[in-house]
Amino acid sequence: MxxxxxxxxxxxxxxxxxxxxxxSITFHPKDIQREAVNNHPDAPMLQPGQSVKVLSWNLQYMxxxxxxxxxxxxxxxxxxxxxxxxxxxxxxxxxVRVITEQNPDILLLQxxxxxxxxxxxxxxxxxxLDMLPAEYANHSEAFYWQAxxxxxxxxxxxxxxxxxxxxxxxxxxxxxxxxxxxxxxxxYDEFNFKRAIQEVRLPIYGGQELVLMNTxxxxxxxGSDTMQQQVAYLDKLLNEKTKLQENWLIAGDLNLLPPxxxxxxxxxxxxxxxxxxxxxxxxxxxxxxxxxxxATGADAQQWFTxxxxxxxxxxxxxxxxxxxxxxxxxxxxGQVLQDKTWHISDHLPMIATFSLPE
Length: 358
Prior knowledge:
The protein is α+β, with helices and mostly antiparallel strands. It is built from seven helices and 14 strands.
């Protein structure tokens, strides 16, 4: 009996030690937490009535469009595991070209790597800041995937993925909002994404702040209500900010279709989405770029933002990236940058320009 008891104690201690190890190498953010802000000492402030140009872009960790990664197919059997160093370097150059040509005031970026084995442990935000003009000196970041080691055959090493805001203007505060996560098996879930909404506040001289939010919702959440939960949090957050009469805008990769676009998809792509999009209530309540009419009309192709990494797809074919904004932002106009961008990422950059309240 003593031998059996000691064996049971040993097994329990072994399980507890393993659980402690997994906890120590994975990411456990708070539901809402403050994030660091980095400003140049002489960073200017936004001015009342000023025109502001914002660029939003999922950069696909500088991987280019030359691959079909294992997760690019529902079965998880894409042939590629990482981009080459040459393609990463070429993508940096093209990203900087687009940003320099567009000259936005603020960048909202998704899917930047930091200490990820598949991109040589590089801090891609730091590298990008070094390559951009000096006026892009103010920034903040928020991780949504981080682990010292992921025991997945296609990775077998560290991961790090984050959202980033880069601004020509001073940022006063940054907050990370934790979103609902996909639930599978407790051990597996520790290594999975912890999706988030990144919020930054930019002061307006003599006036109310500009509140910008940046996000990247889950994908591959079939069979769960994760997407509905993430949209519900977004709905609640935007209604709160509207009631407070804040000057707000959120952008990013929501991985969801606009109302009416499901029937426009190729049959092979429909398995990723619901026929009635989870974003229906968002479109019914708030101003969205593109609108449902734009995303399903005669010129819908100019609003496509996603170019899937599938060998059989030769052009962007769906809209899953958006700007959603307060009515307090005047004269707002949006655009998807289609020209000379298809080869850079599996997402196309988006631009929004608007005027701040006087």
